[in-house]
Amino acid sequence: MRVALLSDVHANLVALEAVLSEAGAVDAIWVMGDTVGYGPDPADVIALLRERGAVMVAGNHDLAVATGQGLDVFNAVARDAAMTHREWLSAADRDFLGGLPQIGHPDGVTLVHGSLRDPVWEYVWDSRSALASLVLAESELSCNGHTHVPAVFELDGQHVRGTLGRGTVALRGRALVNPGSVGQPRDRDPRSAWAILDTEGRTVEFMRTAYDVAETQRRIRDRGLPAFLADRLASGV
Description:
The protein has helices at residues 13-23, 42-51, 60-67, 76-88, 91-98, 127-134, 213-222, 227-231, and strands at 2-6, 28-31, 55-56, 103-104, 110-112, 141-143, 151-156, 159-164, 168-170, 175-178, 192-198, 203-209. It is an alpha/beta fold. The strands form two sheets. The chain has a six-stranded mixed β-sheet with strand order 3-2-1-11-12-9. The chain has a six-stranded mixed β-sheet with strand order 4-5-6-10-7-8, covered by helices on one side.
């Protein structure tokens, strides 16, 4: 099965449309949280992913927008954007976000935003945090997001080997795959980061897709969101 792995779309419709166009005819779309927050088009992003039948799990921004959970620990810019999205979205969209599972299990793969130790909030940056997640997973393969940086961690005996997500990686044994961020990459590459998973061949191909960054920036400014959220998209930080 050929699966598009997406995460951290963050209401960036222009980026999402570019990624889905490049992905073409895939068998499934799996989204590892933070569908909303930061960007200019939360309702349209939700609608497009639902239209495409995407399997989605909840991220911290999704829950903050839906229920206010975690707003107290957000920085001022993130909090402002989340509260604005909460005002923009319909009650039905907020209920949808609030009802997303924190852990998903499509086709024998585990999906989570943060980690299996803390599905919503923990960042998996290194081998130690990856190990804690891998040993808790109910499946050989897990996928996460949250860091906005593509990476793969593989369990090798009692140790974890971690690498940045580049090119095509053959997965051997227990692994945690992070496709990076569609809507707000933070690895100094402004192109959307995502991945194609071949569940039968056990390979993951890390992808980068250029999109009209200036158009998303214009929408952010026109909708009155903090200017910083527009500015950062050009540099990918």
